[in-house]
Protein backbone atom coordinates (compact mmCIF):
# COMPACT_ATOMS: atom_id res chain seq x y z
CA UNK A 1 0.00 0.00 0.00
CA UNK A 2 1.27 3.46 -0.89
CA UNK A 3 0.19 6.43 1.19
CA UNK A 4 0.29 9.51 -0.98
CA UNK A 5 1.45 12.88 0.29
CA UNK A 6 -0.29 15.92 -1.17
CA UNK A 7 1.16 19.39 -0.88
CA UNK A 8 4.78 19.38 0.15
CA UNK A 9 4.19 16.41 2.45
CA UNK A 10 0.87 15.28 3.83
CA UNK A 11 0.48 11.53 4.34
CA UNK A 12 -3.16 10.73 3.85
CA UNK A 13 -5.27 13.43 5.45
CA UNK A 14 -3.82 16.07 7.76
CA UNK A 15 -5.33 14.34 10.81
CA UNK A 16 -4.12 10.88 9.87
CA UNK A 17 -0.71 12.38 9.02
CA UNK A 18 -0.31 13.74 12.56
CA UNK A 19 -1.80 10.65 14.17
CA UNK A 20 0.28 8.06 12.28
CA UNK A 21 3.64 9.79 11.91
CA UNK A 22 3.68 12.89 14.10
CA UNK A 23 4.02 15.08 11.02
CA UNK A 24 2.80 18.58 10.56
CA UNK A 25 0.68 19.06 7.46
CA UNK A 26 3.73 20.28 5.54
CA UNK A 27 7.36 19.31 5.25
CA UNK A 28 9.77 21.41 3.27
CA UNK A 29 12.08 19.27 1.15
CA UNK A 30 15.73 20.22 1.29
CA UNK A 31 16.27 19.45 -2.38
CA UNK A 32 15.76 21.99 -5.16
CA UNK A 33 12.02 21.89 -5.81
CA UNK A 34 12.61 22.27 -9.56
CA UNK A 35 14.74 19.12 -9.50
CA UNK A 36 13.10 16.62 -7.12
CA UNK A 37 9.60 15.62 -8.18
CA UNK A 38 8.72 12.56 -6.07
CA UNK A 39 10.26 10.63 -3.19
CA UNK A 40 9.26 7.08 -2.24
CA UNK A 41 10.41 5.49 1.01
CA UNK A 42 9.37 2.91 3.55
CA UNK A 43 7.28 4.33 6.36
CA UNK A 44 9.79 2.92 8.85
CA UNK A 45 12.49 5.18 7.39
CA UNK A 46 10.57 8.40 7.84
CA UNK A 47 12.06 9.33 11.20
CA UNK A 48 15.67 8.58 10.25
CA UNK A 49 15.33 10.56 7.01
CA UNK A 50 13.35 13.40 8.53
CA UNK A 51 16.39 15.74 8.84
CA UNK A 52 17.03 15.35 5.11
CA UNK A 53 13.38 15.87 4.25
CA UNK A 54 12.74 18.84 6.49
CA UNK A 55 14.34 22.22 5.97
CA UNK A 56 13.40 24.64 8.70
CA UNK A 57 15.43 27.49 7.23
CA UNK A 58 13.65 27.49 3.87
CA UNK A 59 11.05 30.20 3.52
CA UNK A 60 9.03 28.42 0.89
CA UNK A 61 7.97 24.79 0.97
CA UNK A 62 8.91 22.78 -2.12
CA UNK A 63 6.15 21.00 -3.97
CA UNK A 64 7.83 17.60 -4.24
CA UNK A 65 5.55 14.62 -3.63
CA UNK A 66 6.48 12.29 -0.76
CA UNK A 67 5.15 8.72 -0.90
CA UNK A 68 5.33 6.11 1.85
CA UNK A 69 5.03 2.38 1.23
CA UNK A 70 5.37 -0.87 3.15
CA UNK A 71 8.52 -3.00 3.02
CA UNK A 72 6.96 -5.59 0.74
CA UNK A 73 6.17 -3.13 -2.01
CA UNK A 74 9.62 -1.54 -1.81
CA UNK A 75 11.16 -5.00 -2.12
CA UNK A 76 9.10 -5.72 -5.25
CA UNK A 77 10.12 -2.40 -6.80
CA UNK A 78 13.84 -2.53 -6.01
CA UNK A 79 14.42 -6.31 -5.80
CA UNK A 80 16.40 -5.63 -2.60
CA UNK A 81 15.24 -7.91 0.24
CA UNK A 82 13.72 -5.80 2.99
CA UNK A 83 15.69 -7.65 5.68
CA UNK A 84 19.02 -6.75 4.04
CA UNK A 85 18.75 -3.07 3.25
CA UNK A 86 16.66 0.02 3.53
CA UNK A 87 15.63 1.78 0.38
CA UNK A 88 14.50 5.21 -0.68
CA UNK A 89 13.80 6.23 -4.25
CA UNK A 90 13.51 9.67 -5.79
CA UNK A 91 12.35 10.86 -9.19
CA UNK A 92 14.28 13.94 -10.21
CA UNK A 93 15.06 16.03 -13.22
CA UNK A 94 18.64 17.17 -13.59
CA UNK A 95 19.33 20.83 -13.32
CA UNK A 96 20.80 22.40 -16.46
CA UNK A 97 24.19 22.82 -14.78
CA UNK A 98 24.37 19.12 -14.00
CA UNK A 99 23.50 18.18 -17.59
CA UNK A 100 26.22 20.45 -18.90
CA UNK A 101 28.91 19.13 -16.50
CA UNK A 102 28.04 20.10 -12.92
CA UNK A 103 29.63 23.18 -11.43
CA UNK A 104 32.91 24.61 -12.62
CA UNK A 105 35.78 23.73 -10.30
CA UNK A 106 36.53 27.37 -9.45
CA UNK A 107 33.02 27.78 -8.06
CA UNK A 108 33.66 24.97 -5.60
CA UNK A 109 37.05 25.88 -4.18
CA UNK A 110 37.19 27.60 -0.83
CA UNK A 111 39.96 29.67 0.77
CA UNK A 112 42.03 28.16 3.56
CA UNK A 113 42.50 24.41 4.09
CA UNK A 114 41.32 22.33 1.15
CA UNK A 115 40.92 18.59 0.59
CA UNK A 116 40.14 17.56 -2.98
CA UNK A 117 39.89 14.21 -4.74
CA UNK A 118 40.61 13.88 -8.48
CA UNK A 119 39.40 10.76 -10.30
CA UNK A 120 40.27 9.35 -13.71
CA UNK A 121 39.12 6.29 -15.67
CA UNK A 122 36.74 4.89 -13.06
CA UNK A 123 33.36 3.32 -13.76
CA UNK A 124 30.08 4.34 -12.14
CA UNK A 125 30.35 1.85 -9.28
CA UNK A 126 33.88 2.92 -8.37
CA UNK A 127 32.91 6.59 -8.61
CA UNK A 128 30.05 5.99 -6.17
CA UNK A 129 32.30 4.12 -3.76
CA UNK A 130 34.85 6.95 -3.78
CA UNK A 131 32.19 9.56 -3.04
CA UNK A 132 31.44 7.61 0.15
CA UNK A 133 35.15 7.59 0.98
CA UNK A 134 35.40 11.31 0.19
CA UNK A 135 32.52 12.11 2.53
CA UNK A 136 34.03 9.99 5.31
CA UNK A 137 37.36 11.84 5.24
CA UNK A 138 36.08 15.38 4.84
CA UNK A 139 36.87 15.96 1.15
CA UNK A 140 35.59 19.35 0.05
CA UNK A 141 35.26 18.67 -3.69
CA UNK A 142 35.58 15.75 -6.11
CA UNK A 143 37.02 16.49 -9.55
CA UNK A 144 36.07 13.94 -12.20
CA UNK A 145 37.78 13.46 -15.53
CA UNK A 146 35.54 13.00 -18.56
CA UNK A 147 36.79 9.39 -18.74
CA UNK A 148 34.95 8.61 -15.47
CA UNK A 149 31.44 7.26 -15.21
CA UNK A 150 28.55 9.60 -14.52
CA UNK A 151 28.40 10.39 -10.77
CA UNK A 152 24.63 10.82 -11.04
CA UNK A 153 24.07 7.44 -12.70
CA UNK A 154 21.75 5.25 -10.64
CA UNK A 155 24.60 2.84 -9.81
CA UNK A 156 26.82 5.66 -8.58
CA UNK A 157 24.07 7.16 -6.46
CA UNK A 158 23.19 3.76 -4.95
CA UNK A 159 26.78 2.69 -4.18
CA UNK A 160 27.58 6.12 -2.73
CA UNK A 161 24.55 5.84 -0.42
CA UNK A 162 23.52 9.28 -1.63
CA UNK A 163 26.86 10.99 -1.01
CA UNK A 164 27.13 12.03 -4.67
CA UNK A 165 24.24 14.36 -3.87
CA UNK A 166 26.08 15.86 -0.87
CA UNK A 167 29.76 16.14 -1.82
CA UNK A 168 30.31 18.91 -4.41
CA UNK A 169 31.79 17.78 -7.73
CA UNK A 170 33.02 19.18 -11.02
CA UNK A 171 33.58 17.33 -14.30
CA UNK A 172 35.95 17.99 -17.16
CA UNK A 173 39.42 17.18 -18.45
CA UNK A 174 41.94 16.61 -15.67
CA UNK A 175 44.77 17.26 -18.13
CA UNK A 176 43.49 20.83 -18.39
CA UNK A 177 42.09 21.26 -14.89
CA UNK A 178 44.90 19.92 -12.70
CA UNK A 179 47.70 22.20 -13.97
CA UNK A 180 45.43 25.23 -13.54
CA UNK A 181 44.50 24.13 -10.04
CA UNK A 182 48.12 23.75 -8.98
CA UNK A 183 49.25 26.97 -10.66
CA UNK A 184 46.47 29.32 -9.59
CA UNK A 185 45.17 27.99 -6.27
CA UNK A 186 48.27 27.13 -4.18
CA UNK A 187 47.35 23.45 -4.06
CA UNK A 188 49.72 20.51 -3.65
CA UNK A 189 49.11 17.29 -5.59
CA UNK A 190 49.52 13.70 -4.38
CA UNK A 191 49.13 10.77 -6.77
CA UNK A 192 48.37 7.19 -5.73
CA UNK A 193 50.86 4.81 -7.38
CA UNK A 194 51.30 1.05 -7.53
CA UNK A 195 53.75 -0.25 -4.95
CA UNK A 196 55.87 -1.70 -7.76
CA UNK A 197 56.62 1.81 -9.06
CA UNK A 198 60.19 2.58 -7.97
CA UNK A 199 59.72 6.34 -8.44
CA UNK A 200 57.21 6.67 -5.60
CA UNK A 201 57.53 6.94 -1.82
CA UNK A 202 55.55 4.97 0.72
CA UNK A 203 52.77 6.81 2.51
CA UNK A 204 54.40 5.93 5.85
CA UNK A 205 57.43 8.04 4.90
CA UNK A 206 55.40 11.14 4.07
CA UNK A 207 55.65 13.15 7.27
CA UNK A 208 53.54 16.22 6.39
CA UNK A 209 51.45 17.59 3.53
CA UNK A 210 50.42 21.09 2.52
CA UNK A 211 47.10 22.17 4.05
CA UNK A 212 45.62 22.56 0.54
CA UNK A 213 45.93 19.31 -1.38
CA UNK A 214 44.38 17.20 -4.11
CA UNK A 215 44.72 13.41 -4.22
CA UNK A 216 44.80 11.90 -7.73
CA UNK A 217 43.33 8.41 -8.15
CA UNK A 218 43.31 6.25 -11.29
CA UNK A 219 45.99 8.06 -13.28
CA UNK A 220 48.69 5.38 -13.16
CA UNK A 221 50.41 5.33 -16.53
CA UNK A 222 49.35 8.86 -17.45
CA UNK A 223 52.71 10.59 -17.79
CA UNK A 224 51.34 14.14 -18.02
CA UNK A 225 49.14 13.91 -14.93
CA UNK A 226 51.75 12.10 -12.86
CA UNK A 227 54.29 14.78 -13.79
CA UNK A 228 51.97 17.42 -12.25
CA UNK A 229 52.08 15.73 -8.86
CA UNK A 230 54.83 16.71 -6.45
CA UNK A 231 54.23 13.56 -4.37
CA UNK A 232 53.82 10.09 -5.91
CA UNK A 233 52.80 7.80 -3.08
CA UNK A 234 52.29 4.06 -2.69
CA UNK A 235 50.77 2.02 0.13
CA UNK A 236 53.21 -0.37 1.72
CA UNK A 237 51.98 -3.98 1.80
CA UNK A 238 53.48 -7.27 2.92
CA UNK A 239 52.69 -8.85 -0.44
CA UNK A 240 53.69 -6.50 -3.26
CA UNK A 241 51.49 -6.42 -6.33
CA UNK A 242 48.34 -7.54 -4.48
CA UNK A 243 45.54 -5.12 -5.35
CA UNK A 244 43.57 -3.61 -2.51
CA UNK A 245 40.86 -2.30 -4.79
CA UNK A 246 40.35 1.36 -5.53
CA UNK A 247 37.98 2.04 -2.63
CA UNK A 248 40.23 0.48 0.04
CA UNK A 249 43.40 2.06 -1.36
CA UNK A 250 41.72 5.47 -1.58
CA UNK A 251 40.47 5.17 1.99
CA UNK A 252 43.99 4.52 3.26
CA UNK A 253 45.36 7.42 1.22
CA UNK A 254 42.76 9.95 2.29
CA UNK A 255 43.01 8.92 5.92
CA UNK A 256 46.79 9.34 5.79
CA UNK A 257 46.61 12.72 4.08
CA UNK A 258 43.92 13.98 6.43
CA UNK A 259 46.11 13.05 9.41
CA UNK A 260 49.14 14.78 7.92
CA UNK A 261 47.61 18.04 6.73
CA UNK A 262 46.81 19.00 10.31
CA UNK A 263 50.51 18.86 11.20
CA UNK A 264 51.60 21.29 8.48
CA UNK A 265 51.96 25.04 9.18
CA UNK A 266 49.85 27.21 6.88
CA UNK A 267 52.63 27.99 4.41
CA UNK A 268 52.99 27.87 0.63
CA UNK A 269 53.26 24.59 -1.28
CA UNK A 270 56.96 25.22 -1.94
CA UNK A 271 57.74 25.84 1.73
CA UNK A 272 55.76 22.80 2.84
CA UNK A 273 57.58 20.60 0.31
CA UNK A 274 60.99 21.90 1.41
CA UNK A 275 60.16 21.20 5.06
CA UNK A 276 59.17 17.66 4.12
CA UNK A 277 62.54 17.17 2.41
CA UNK A 278 64.34 18.35 5.53
CA UNK A 279 62.48 15.92 7.82
CA UNK A 280 64.81 13.15 9.06
CA UNK A 281 64.10 9.89 7.24
CA UNK A 282 64.25 6.47 8.85
CA UNK A 283 67.09 4.25 7.65
CA UNK A 284 66.30 2.06 4.70
CA UNK A 285 65.59 -1.49 5.83
CA UNK A 286 64.08 -4.52 4.26
CA UNK A 287 63.98 -3.01 0.79
CA UNK A 288 61.78 -0.10 1.90
CA UNK A 289 61.98 3.05 -0.17
CA UNK A 290 62.67 6.43 1.40
CA UNK A 291 62.43 9.89 -0.05
TrEMBL record:
Is Transferase set as a keyword in this record? yes
Kindly indicate where the leader peptide sits in this chain: none
Matching InterPro entries: Alpha/beta_knot_MTases, rRNA_Methyltransferase, SpoU_MeTrfase, tRNA_m1G_MTases_N
Listed GO MF terms: RNA binding; RNA methyltransferase activity
- Which key words tag this protein in UniProt? Methyltransferase, Transferase
Q: Which Gene3D superfamilies match?
A: 3.40.1280.10
Start and end residues of each tRNA/rRNA methyltransferase SpoU type domain: 124-254
Biological process (GO), any one: RNA processing
Alphabetical list of Pfam families matching this protein:
SpoU_methylase
Protein name according to UniProt = NAD-dependent protein deacetylase sirtuin-2
Q: Which organism is it from?
A: Cladocopium goreaui
